[in-house]
Amino acid sequence: MSYMFAVPDTVAAAAADLAGIGSTLNAATAATAAPTTGVLAAGADQVSAAVAALFSGHALDYQALSTQVATFHTQFVEAVTGAGNAYAAAEAANASPLLGISQDMLNAVNGPTEALLGRPLIGNGADGTAPEQAGGDGGLLYGNGGAGGPGGAGGNAGLIGNGGAGGSGAALGLFGGSDAALGLFGGTGGNGGLLFGNGGTGGAAGDLASGVGLPGGAGGHAGLFGIGGVGGEGGNSATTAGVGGAGGAGGTGGTGGTSASGTGATGGSGGAGGLLFSPGGAGGDGGAGFSGADGGAGGNGGAGGLLFGTGGGGGEGGATSPSSSTGSGGDGGIGGTSGLFGTGGTGGAGGAAANATGGNGGAGGGGLWFGNGGAGGIGGFDAHGDGGDGGDGGNAGIYGGNGGAGGTGGVGVGGNLFTGGQGGAGGNAGLLAGNGGAGGNGGVRFSGNAGAGGAGGTGGDAGMFGNGGAGGAGGDRVAGSQGNGGDGGDGAHGGTYFGSGGAGGHGGYDDSGSGGQGGHGGDGGAAGTIGNGGDGGTGGDALVSGGTGDDGGDGGDAREIGNGGNGGNAGAGATAGNEGTGGTGGQLIGVSGTDGST
């Protein structure tokens, strides 16, 4: 038995094309009728008249045949058009019963499962409508969770599907109240499917006219493959003593709430990645502090998936009010650890402050097995005080990987006796192989008297095989009087068996007026059994009259095979610093490094 397949839309399009062809032929036939049927004789003789009559007769016969062809073409077009309409009608007539049959089949499959377990096998969960009403769970096999009502949790997915979003809390003018029945808290996002699916977004918390802001809802967890849901934003408090609510944890942590006059809330932590292959969520930013209060700390980044996954970055620390005379910026969140294979998350930046101290940058996340450490966060800026310290770089995995770079110290501006932030230390390399992370540069110090640029961070140590991390440069001292440039960080030692030491960081320069001094250059790191010592850093210059240049760093020593590091040059000034001493060469093979110059 043979079968025929027809596509109604294609048949209808063919009928339209045929109608257009017929119209074109009819127009051409009509245009040629007059000149071909009325041919004039070439002369008055009988032969010319006979030739003209012959051609005119042929033209009349053609016109008669064309009329018959046009009639047939019209009938053919009508037949094709009718066939297309018939196919479309038959398809529509057959579709409705099939839809009913498929729904009936789905009901037959879901009915016993729902009666036994209270949950369908296939289908999406219903959305919650009333306050605090949770969204319905998705099908056990396939389906998304329903969204929660105001303050209600999102429904969970089954094997495959996305979790439902948590409902947002209501905004009410209560004094310190936190009545859950009113749906003030942000609802928790539903969990994603056990196999495939993303977690649901957590609901934002409601705002209060007084009291402590409420926490945002946590984002839902992912399964084997998927990304955790975003945490809800913490609620705000409008009082002069209230504290903003904490952001919810999630794939990406929620932002901490703000307060009219109180400490900003901590940002929510990033959620862990899916069990096997997903990145960890980023930590939420800390809430801002107002009227002299501290900014909230950034949330920590979530861990990456167990097998392959990058750690989430730490959240940024909350800033303080620009018009406030007190209050420190919040610290940045710590970067999340990676999975067995992956890179740790970057630490969050410290929050900015107006007059006290900028927040410290968060430490970078570490690798777990084979993986690189995350970079440390940048220290917070301070408009009239100390800059925040940069975060330390994360350590690499146990067996291999490079340490993360240390974060740069925050910039300090104005005031007396304040400093730029210290650069973060570089992360250590893996135990077996890998290079240590570079130390972060010290923060720059602008204006004010007797202040100093921040010191550079030390480099991270190598493992058995690898190079030590370089020390960070000292922060520069700009404007003001009697200030110092920051000292450069020391380079780290090379690997136990093979690797060169890290170079020392350069000392920061000083151009802050008479009596200033440049920063000391960092010492180079010692080499491993085989490898060269690191070079010493150059001493900082004093760029104004009466200033003193600082000493260059010493070069690192080689051990068995390798050259010693060169000493750093002395910093220039009205009084120059001392040059650094070159490191000794290897006991078996190698030459000593040269001393620095003045």
Automatic annotation (TrEMBL):
It comes from Mycobacterium ulcerans subsp. shinshuense. Coiled coil: none annotated. This is PE-PGRS family protein. Residues 4-94 form the PE domain. Residues 308-318, 327-340, 513-550, 562-571, 579-588 have a biased composition (Gly residues). InterPro entries: PE-PGRS_N, PPE_sf. Residues 308-340, 508-598 are annotated as: Disordered.
